[in-house]
Design goal:
Elements (H helix, E strand, L loop, with lengths): L1 H37 L6 H25 L2 E2 L5 E3 L9 H22 L9 H24 L15 H8 L9
Antiparallel strand pairs: 1-2
Helix pairs in contact: 1-2, 1-3, 2-3
C-alpha cells in the first residue's frame, strides 16, 4: 500500500517537473526569439544582461525543484525515492509563486521591453506582505491561547448560552466582580 502512494507521488512530481521545464523553455525561447527577430532594433546589451540576471532566480528554483522532487527508480519498477511533494504548502508554494512571476515578467519584457523588468519589484513586496500576514496570524493565534480575545474584549465580557437566555427572559443579570 505504501508503494502505491510512493508511485503516485513520483508520477505527480514527474508531471510537475515536465511542466516546469517545458514552460521555462517556452518563455525563455520566446524572449530570445522576439528580441532577436521581431524587436531587434530595441534590443541592447542591457536587455540581455537584465534577462540573464533576472532569470537566475527562476533557473535556481527550477534546479532546486529538480533536485528535491525528481523520483529515483530501482531495479525493476520499484520506486526508491518518490521525491518531496512539490504540491505542498509553505515554502514550496511561495517558490512556485516566484517562479510564475519570473516567467510572467520575462514574457512581458519580451513583448513590451526593458520597462517590464520593473515588475520584479513586486516579489520583495509580496515577500514582505506574506511575512507580515503570517506573523500577524501567528500573533493573533498566540493571543487566543493566552486568554486574550479580540481587541477591547476582556474575559469577563464573555457570557455562556445559559446566562444569555436568562437575561433574555428577563431574569437576573449575572455580574462578575
Amino acid at each position: 500500500m505504501a508503494q502505491k502512494a510512493a508511485k503516485q507521488q513520483a508520477a505527480r512530481n514527474t508531471t510537475i517537473l515536465k511542466r516546469i521545464h517545458l514552460l521555462s523553455l517556452l518563455v525563455n525561447a520566446l524572449f530570445l526569439l522576439l528580441r532577436f527577430l521581431l524587436f531587434r532594433s530595441s534590443s541592447t546589451r542591457a536587455t540581455f544582461i537584465l534577462w540573464i540576471l533576472l532569470s537566475i532566480p527562476g533557473f535556481a528554483i527550477e534546479f532546486w525543484f529538480e533536485k528535491i522532487g525528481r523520483p529515483t527508480s530501482g531495479a525493476v519498477a520499484e520506486v526508491k525515492n518518490s521525491g518531496q511533494d512539490l504540491e505542498s504548502k509553505g515554502l514550496t508554494e511561495y517558490m512556485f509563486d516566484v517562479l510564475y512571476w519570473s516567467w510572467g515578467t520575462t514574457f512581458l519584457a519580451s513583448v513590451f521591453g526593458n520597462r517590464a523588468w520593473w515588475m520584479w519589484a513586486a516579489i520583495p513586496l509580496y515577500s514582505v506582505w506574506l511575512a507580515y500576514s503570517t506573523f500577524g496570524s501567528v500573533r493573533q493565534g498566540m493571543a487566543g491561547l493566552s486568554g486574550q480575545g479580540a481587541e477591547g474584549e476582556t474575559p469577563n465580557d464573555a457570557t455562556s448560552n445559559r446566562q444569555r437566555k436568562l437575561e433574555k427572559k428577563g431574569g437576573q443579570k449575572v455580574q462578575y466582580r
